[in-house]
Design a protein that fits this description.
Number of strands of chain A: 30
CATH architecture of the largest domain in chain A: 3-Layer(bba) Sandwich
Strand order of the largest sheet of chain B: 13-12-11-14-15-16-22-19
Radius of gyration of chain B: 25 Å
Distance between the termini of chain B: 48 Å
Number of strands of chain B: 22
Strand content of chain A: over 45%
Number of helices of chain A: 5
Number of domains of chain B: 3
CATH class of the largest domain in chain A: Alpha Beta
CATH topology of the largest domain in chain A: Glucose Oxidase, domain 1
Largest interface: A-B, 48 and 52 residues
Shape of chain B: globular
Number of helices of chain B: 16
Distance between the termini of chain A: 17 Å
Helix content of chain B: 25-40%
Radius of gyration of chain A: 27 Å
Oligomer: heterodimer
Largest sheet of chain B: 8 strands, mixed
Largest sheet of chain A: 13 strands, mixed
CATH superfamily of the largest domain in chain A: Ribonuclease E inhibitor RraA/RraA-like
Strand content of chain B: 15-25%
Structural class of chain A: mainly beta
Chain lengths: ~350, ~575
């Protein structure tokens, strides 16, 4: 049976697409070395539109209005700029209610874009641009450690990793967040209150990597301007041993936390990247595996949720579980030496 | 590919779901179509594979192993027709429910008329209504454009204008849509369905034709103020969804090609089957189908002259599970639990399960939580679907579930129940059927596959249905009555074919069963007390033939609507007792 793969790897080749939400200009060059903060593409985005029905305002036909409209598509208009002038002794002047760019003219109407903002797409990870996606973005390659998470607040940043997780389930409290951590990416076990999230924002921290989070804190976590990445799930789950080991042993290194939203269709996942110098490109991680003895797996449902073990054997046929359900299952040896049975659909391969 | 299924024998049917893909083989045995076996594999619409054809091939490969017949060629394509060496199949049909919900904007002239019809039409498939526009919309056109640009709909459904009626108002509504589409990049422009005033076709083409990825027309769903006719537009919309999926998900185009361009959304195929059944077997009562899947809960009702189909992604048990809390509370869900579970544990569960929709309950506690959630989701789905059931359908009380015969149930939540009794209690709690009805479990999720096959081979569904491919749970008697717990509300005598008899004295608040094996029939004489109504009228009894099932004849004496005790300890004890009575453990 095909197995989902969750990447927790010490050294691998990482290739990531970085694209604009709408089309724009790519500013990076092929083979350019980029840092996480380098702008690789940019575009402009207007959130608001102004529709001026000149024909109706002048009480004339659309064709007649078209003849009176003075602006053209792509004209940048200032607020109060004249768009059309009616005829007659008391001619009415139609003016732009606010500054904007004309995007359509016709049918006696003028449509303007207003409130335009610039969108800058940053590289997000350090590496080399290996492909330009015209008008969209770039593909960047790097080598290093990769730890995928299960939830992210949509932010991205880089900094030196500071380990505040004395144990995989250590609770982070505001009093541990002192000024020495300013600009760091903080590794912790659990966060149980809003105060801790706010204290990290006040430092400010460049990122927070935690094992689990209470669902009641998610709304606040989304508001935070620094990236928050959850490695294991919701509630009080300790960090899985593979992620904890890899992250805690890389403390004081520069890491990138890309806490992007999990999108099961595109494959985008929140992830931590630990760039490492290499003399040659390491292998890319496997995206698909088949369940087989010897593979390292993580449990995704109770009992033993979050624990890591290795497959001892795949059970033949269907196995009856304590819930009474019957499903294809495997015998798993957990890290504590205990051997348990788990349905295959509740497992994911770690690697 | 064969040109027609009617002349062929074996039929391979594939259902590509959000979590799993099933390949099902039907073949002719002793002159009749039979369900042979099904193979299952994880669906592959999502990353990393992002190609639904791969999951379909894996499911067929698993089916091959079960039936010992080669169905895939060396390049993993389906072998059609059946070869001299016995490999391959004669025909192939495919249904699809995988994929993200389609972001939709509905447009109608009048809020309570055409806009309502457009909403009902849109809810017959896997969509999420992001915005709606009508003449009563207070927003200015530029604000509507801003909203459309934010939402970036993949689909716009427009209704309005009686045939031959006003057209200027519709034009006014179309303007922002045309302008917003113009502002979008070509590949992001929405697909548009116009199901309004037929005289406006040319104007609609002019206003939005060149600005939409594809513009479709269907007969007016509201030809007059009093008439609504959604069916033809529903058919058009079903194919539009497949075309949208072709752009979204790799492999859909290949599967559609395999099926000869007849691929259908799973829910539409289910609705078609229910419509077909209500025509073939239709009685005064309606036919109900519920399917609780990872992408949506689908409720299809077949009535004498009308059918309804409701696709409710908000009550799905997959990645949108947390969204259930927009419609209910943690306490409401926990009311259905047989175990003492805290609301914090439940909240964590909802979030965790949303991450891994395909996972299953391995422990008793996990199962109790998943079953409680499924009950609440089904209950809410039924309450929502009920609002759009036709008027004047058979019922005991208008505010209760109408009378149905039979009720068909399938989907992941029911497969997640370890015993038929667990599934039955979930259905009794969620649907709250009234009167006398048969409950049938579609354990292999065959209903949509029979629906997609029905359009080309109307013998196959009937023969498969009558072949025992579905599991009859039994006949359920649910009196509508109000009484004190423990009061006698119904007495019944079941006369078996061999002359034996069994009696029951049903007390309010209890569930009782009388054995009647699958395939057996009997005569059930019911005498009601305290003015109870089982469909014969208040206080009236009667004698009816009944057929058996896994649980025989089940008497649900808990009253309608179901009112669970407020005391949590007593409530949990009762749920355990009811489960135990039905053999649910």
């Amino acid at each position: 049976m095909q197995a989902p793969v969750h990447h927790i790897i010490g050294l691998t080749s990482i290739v990531r697409e970085r694209v604009l939400p709408i089309s724009g200009n790519v500013t990076a060059r092929i083979q350019q070395k980029v840092t996480p903060n380098d702008v690789v593409a940019e575009t402009r985005w207007a959130r608001e539109h102004v529709l001026l029905d000149v024909a109706r305002l002048l009480n004339i036909s659309p064709n007649a209005a078209d003849r009176l409209i003075k602006c053209n598509v792509n004209d940048e208009l200032k607020a109060n700029a004249e768009i059309a002038m009616g005829k007659g002794m008391f001619a009415k002047s139609i003016r732009a209610p606010r500054a904007g760019r004309v995007v359509a003219v016709g049918g006696g109407q003028v449509l303007m874009e207003a409130g335009e903002t610039k969108i800058e797409l940053r590289a997000g990870i350090p590496g080399t641009v290996i492909q330009i996606l015209p008008n969209k973005g770039v593909v960047i390659q790097t080598a290093g450690g990769l730890i995928q998470g299960v939830w992210g607040n949509g932010r991205i940043d880089s900094g030196i990793l500071a380990n505040l997780a004395d144990a995989p389930d250590a609770i982070l409290t505001p009093n541990r967040l002192d000024v020495s951590l300013r600009g760091s990416v903080i590794l912790a076990g659990l966060v149980k209150d809003v105060d801790t999230l706010e204290a990290a924002a006040e430092l400010p921290a460049r990122g927070l990597i935690i094992a689990s989070i209470y669902p009641s804190l998610l709304a606040k976590a989304r508001e935070m301007r620094y990236p928050i990445l959850v490695t294991d799930g919701f509630g009080s789950l300790p960090m899985n041993s593979a992620a904890y080991k890899l992250l805690s042993t890389n403390a004081k290194r520069e890491v990138t936390v890309n806490a992007e939203f999990y999108d099961r269709y595109t494959g985008a996942r929140p992830e931590v990247i630990i760039p490492l110098p290499t003399s040659s490109d390491p292998l890319s991680p496997k995206e698909v595996e088949e369940f087989a003895p010897g593979l390292q797996v993580r449990m995704r449902r109770p009992p033993f949720m979050g624990m890591i073990g290795s497959i001892v054997s795949i059970k033949p046929g269907l196995t009856t579980l304590p819930s009474g359900l019957r499903a294809p299952s495997a015998e798993i040896k957990l890290e504590n030496g205990e051997t348990v049975i788990a349905p295959l659909v509740n497992l994911e391969v770690v690697g | 590919m064969p040109s027609s299924i009617i002349t062929s024998n074996s039929l391979l049917a594939i259902d590509v779901g959000a979590a799993n893909t099933r390949a099902v083989l039907f073949d002719v045995i002793e002159g009749e179509y039979r369900f042979i076996a099904s193979g299952i594999a994880p669906s592959t619409a999502e990353a990393p594979i992002k190609d639904v054809a791969e999951g379909a091939r894996n499911a067929v490969a698993n089916l091959q192993k079960i039936v010992g017949k080669t169905l895939l060629d060396s390049s993993r394509g389906i072998i059609t027709p059946t070869q001299a060496n016995g490999s391959g199949v004669d025909a192939l049909v495919i249904t699809l429910s995988a994929g993200p919900t389609v972001k939709t904007v509905v447009v109608g002239l009048l809020k309570d008329v055409s806009l309502d019809s457009a909403r009902r039409l849109t809810e017959t498939t896997y969509t999420r209504i992001m915005d709606s526009m009508s003449l009563s919309d207070q927003r200015k056109p530029d604000q509507q454009i801003d909203s459309l640009m934010r939402v970036r709909p993949e689909l716009v459904v427009i209704a309005g204008g009686t045939d031959g009626g006003a057209s200027r108002s519709i034009q006014k509504l179309l303007e922002p849509i045309g302008l917003a589409s113009f502002l979008m990049p070509e590949e992001k422009r929405p697909t548009v369905l116009f199901a309004g005033n037929q005289k406006m076709e040319e104007e609609v083409k002019t206003l939005v034709g060149s600005l939409s990825t594809s513009l479709h027309f269907s007969p007016n769903i509201r030809p007059s103020l009093e008439t609504e006719d959604i069916d033809p537009a529903e058919r058009e919309l079903a194919r539009m969804i497949i075309n949208i999926r072709k752009r979204q998900i790799k492999g859909v185009d290949l599967l559609d090609l395999w099926s000869g361009g007849h691929m259908l959304p799973t829910a539409y195929a289910t609705g078609r089957m229910v419509r077909f059944l209500s025509k073939v077997y239709g009685s005064q009562k309606g036919i109900l189908s519920v399917d609780m899947g990872a992408s949506a809960t689908v409720i299809a009702g077949g009535f004498k002259n009308k059918s309804t189909l409701k696709v409710l992604p908000q009550f799905s048990l997959g990645q949108n599970l947390v969204g259930l809390l927009n419609y209910t509370t943690l306490d409401n869900i926990l009311e259905w639990s047989s175990l003492d579970i805290s609301s914090g544990v439940l909240l964590d569960y909802l979030h965790q399960k949303s991450l891994y929709p395909a996972t299953i309950a391995a422990t008793q506690e996990d199962l109790a939580i998943s079953q409680a959630i499924a009950r609440e989701a089904l209950y809410l789905a039924m309450q929502t679907a009920k609002k759009d059931f036709p008027q004047n359908i058979a019922n005991i009380k208008p505010n209760l579930t109408p009378l149905f015969e039979p009720i068909l149930a399938g989907g992941g939540a029911l497969s997640d129940a370890s015993r038929p009794g667990q599934s039955l209690l979930l259905l009794l709690d969620g649907i709250q059927p009234v009167g006398i009805t048969t409950i049938i479990l579609d354990q292999n999720n065959l209903l949509p596959l029979l629906g997609v096959a029905a359009s080309q081979n109307n013998i196959l569904p009937v023969q498969v249905l009558e072949s025992g491919a579905f599991l009859s749970v039994g006949t359920v008697v649910s009196p509508v009555v109000s009484a004190r717990y423990g009061t006698s509300i119904l007495k019944a005598k079941l006369s078996y074919e061999n002359g034996a008899e069994a009696n029951i004295d049903l007390k309010f608040g209890s569930i009782e069963t009388l054995p009647l094996a699958n395939g057996e029939t009997g005569k059930l004489t019911i005498q009601v007390l305290r003015g109870a109504d089982v469909g014969f009228g208040p206080g009236r009894g009667g004698t009816i033939p009944v057929s058996g099932g896994a649980l025989g004849v089940v008497f649900d004496g808990r009253g309608r609507p179901l009112d669970l005790p407020d005391d949590p300890v007593r409530r949990r004890e009762l749920i355990k007792k009811w489960n135990w009575t039905l053999g649910g453990g």
